[in-house]
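[agent] plan:
  1. take the single chain provided in the ticket
  2. run structure prediction with default settings
  3. attach structure tokens to the ticket
  4. add a short note for the reviewer (M.T.)
[agent] executing step 1
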Amino acid sequence: MFDITTCRDFHKKLKADFEDFANEQGSARLALNCIITAYHLHEWVWGDWLKADYATWKELEIRDKESFVARIERECPAFKTVQDLTNGAKHFIREQNVQTSHVGGFGMGPYGGGPYGASYLLIDYGADAGDQRWKTGKDLIEAVVTFWNVFFERYLPEVQAEGE
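[agent] step 2 finished; step 3 output follows
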């Protein structure tokens, strides 16, 4: 049996995935693993406890799963990009059509290793994004991991020992 059975376990996986990626920022495999986990954590939170925690619904000002996701997107704008990358990873598309997504690309950073520094992944939001066109994979993922860390500290109920 896998030892990931609760949203707490999945959150621990996200933190470990991010640590792995932070140590190897040029790895698209590690980045996508972290991105997919960061996106799907909302489903684990919802299914594990939030769907029936109406007191937290009031605190978050949500009414259902869709409003929960909308709240996440408002508080963590990077979550939408993580969602797009997660969904894009499920489908084989040789050439990305920039007009169908606000994510223009996911490739190696401009220095790409060698004598100029370590390689890293870079998100291209396209020319229409102006000064906000480029974001490193680490910055994107770190924003979502930070959101989840704060969310868990603030809202996750205490674990009750068996028999309580």
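[agent] step 4 note for reviewer: The first strand starts at residue 105 and ends at 108.
[agent] ticket updated
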